[in-house]
């Protein structure tokens, strides 16, 4: 993943806000990067742009060697579905579906996906995340931390190459948070999954191989080892 002079301006009528300003960033395959920065510094915006969800940027974004700006919406949607897992800051679960249905939704859009296989992978992920017994609940019946884990399972369903997470441990108690961090470390180590995670949490940041600090839409040029 690479950005060149990436700028994102939100047009808010009278005041325009520059959520990202001239960001030059390279994330190599297999890196585990944590993004830190105060509220409003552009962290969620950065994830949305590099995840291909927000196309209103200026500058250049390259994903898996392809220039996002040159891709059609359909091609970008396919790339997202096949290679990117996204954990949103507010989870975005579908409330009328059960947990297991939520986790398998990413496979619904792929006609080649095998329903049985998706279901069995979803079940394994739920087990790994300590939610095996909640598969047939709806999100409304879950705690915030449980919902967050459902969102993580969903992001991992298609075995993405790049996992983008916005505060993935934000709602978790210490023990569950530690479990998620372990899972990320394992995926990073064993499957060379590239991870970019926004966080306020010291523990998650310590697990990363690199820390990136955002301040008012700019990347702090001093990069820090964790
Ligand atoms: N859709 C939008 N319309 C207008 N302004 C926006 C929009 N999304 C974000 N912004 C502005 O862009 C800036 C960066 O927002 P962003 O959500 O990326 O911050 P953040 O670092 O994720 O903050 P937090 O830690 O609170 O989640 C903020 O000033 C915000 O008000
Ligand atoms: Mg945010």
Automatic annotation (TrEMBL):
SUPFAM superfamilies reported for this sequence: P-loop containing nucleoside triphosphate hydrolases
UniProt GO MF annotations: ATP binding; ATP hydrolysis activity; transmembrane transporter activity
Cited SMART domains: AAA (SM00382)
CDD domains: ABC_MJ0796_LolCDE_FtsE (cd03255)
Pfam assignment, any one: ABC_tran
Keywords for this protein: ATP-binding, Nucleotide-binding, Transport
Domain ABC transporter: 1-225
Gene3D superfamilies per UniProt: P-loop containing nucleotide triphosphate hydrolases
A GO CC term attached to the entry: membrane protein complex
InterPro entries per record: AAA+_ATPase (IPR003593), ABC_transporter-like_ATP-bd (IPR003439), ABC_transporter-like_CS (IPR017871), ABC_transpr_LolD-like (IPR015854), MacB-like_ATP-bd (IPR017911), P-loop_NTPase (IPR027417)
Protein family (similarity comment): Belongs to the ABC transporter superfamily. Macrolide exporter (TC 3.A.1.122) family.
UniProt name for this protein: ATP-binding cassette domain-containing protein
């Amino acid at each position: 993943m690479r950005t060149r002079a990436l700028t994102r301006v939100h047009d808010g009528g009278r005041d325009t806000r520059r959520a990202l300003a001239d960001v030059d960033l390279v994330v190599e395959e297999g890196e585990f990067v944590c993004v830190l920065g105060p509220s409003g510094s552009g962290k969620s915006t950065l994830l949305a742009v590099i995840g291909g969800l927000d196309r209103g940027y200026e500058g250049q974004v390259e994903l898996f060697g392809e220039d996002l700006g040159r891709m059609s919406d359909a091609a970008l949607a396919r790339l997202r579905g096949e290679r990117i897992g996204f954990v949103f800051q507010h989870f975005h679960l579908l409330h009328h579906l059960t947990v297991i249905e939520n986790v398998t939704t990413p496979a619904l859009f792929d006609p080649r996906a095998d329903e049985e296989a998706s279901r069995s992978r979803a079940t394994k992920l739920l087990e790994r995340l300590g939610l095996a017994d909640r598969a047939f609940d709806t999100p409304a019946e879950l705690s915030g931390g449980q919902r967050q884990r459902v969102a993580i399972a969903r992001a991992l369903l298609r075995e993405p190459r790049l996992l983008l997470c916005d505060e993935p441990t934000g709602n978790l108690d210490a023990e569950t948070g530690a479990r998620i961090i372990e899972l990320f470390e394992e995926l990073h180590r064993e499957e060379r999954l590239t991870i970019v995670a926004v966080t306020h949490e010291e523990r998650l940041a310590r697990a990363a191989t690199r820390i990136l600090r955002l301040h008012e839409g700019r990347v702090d040029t001093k990069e820090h080892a964790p």
